[in-house]
Give the backbone structure.
Amino acid sequence: MKPVVIDTNCLLQIIARRSPYRPIWDAFLAGRFQLCVSNEILEEYQEILEQQITPTIAENVVLLILNQKNVQLVAPYFRMGLITSDPDDNKFVDCAFAAGADYLVSEDSHFSVLHTIPFPHLNLVTLDEFMQTRLVGK
């Protein structure tokens, strides 16, 4: 099963029922890929979902994620600091590196620096690009 890290803004987009990216969430729930998260990522998911939707929905989404068999809880031991324009985004990079993720899904322009760094090689993709993988069925 392919390991994937999804940043928070993308999570917000994929959980919406009427989103064109909903098939990503459905593919996750169907076990087509492994979602890799760290405690820091889960905390951010919860915080932002609480702000954007409601605390109850935020808690339910995080609990749903944690209860899926295709979730890998990752404890990154390296803090690489590759994203200097928004250091808070490094939690996703560090998790992807520690998990050996096949994809890091983000729409955030701060992540584009990863295209210029030879090591570590992280396969940064947008939601549209991830939708084109065989992991997401339409």
